[in-house]
Amino acid sequence: MTSPHSPNQNQLLAALPTEEFERLLPDLELVEMRLGDLLAESGETARHAWFPTSAIVSLHYVLESGDASEIAGVGHEGIVGVSLFMGGNTTPSRAIVQTAGHGYRLRAQALILEFDRAGRLMRLMLRYTQALMAQMSLSGTCTRHHSLLQQLCRWLLTTLDRMPTNDLVMTQELIAGMLGVRREGVTEAAGRLRDLGAISYRRGHITVLDRELLSTQVCECYGVVKKEFARLLSDVQHRQDSVSGVK
User: Fold this and answer.
1) Most CB atoms within 10 A, among 77, 81, 120, 244?
2) Are 193 and 199 in contact (CB under 8 A)?
3) CA distance 164 to 152
4) pLDDT in tens, 190-214
């Protein structure tokens, strides 16, 4: 029986030339990524890079008080572990699985060795890192200048872009933690979207009923980040089918 899982479900891995991809293949390990799993801790040296396929990972900045909020998300379009090839080895952010699914884990040394060959992987990783930086910078601006309703719409739309379904397994408390706001604020914003007919929700689940309506309520940050990812990684999708299939 053919496995439903493949490294090619991650856009960065799928864009690699066959020769580079096959050098990484022996070190790519399929892993289940469960909700709440801690992939990387702030200040600790990373031993692996992670390529999500169906999971979504949230990058959090953690304050000395222990409070944290999301600064970026990573899905099938990206990688968790950019500090490995950027030379920093550690990062002030924490990586936690936001949406359960699967992905591929790669030993740090295997990634570094391939990056140092200065081939296609290196160019892809640098362009992805630039797009990730754009996402991080807009996240801070959005928090300061846009309403909680707009931020919630941005978060919902960004999450939907990484999922095959409109049904999100996510509590309002967890969303509040992602956005760094009080749960009551998320409840009020979600209630307004429900009254508009954009979403429905029950405990632990949010279903997007009208994505176009969400798009009319979201701030400009969503479109700016999406456009930047498309600009920097536009040729990634064009090459997904050219990489040999992997079982």
Assistant:
1) 81
2) yes
3) 19
4) 999 999 999 998 888 899 999 999 9
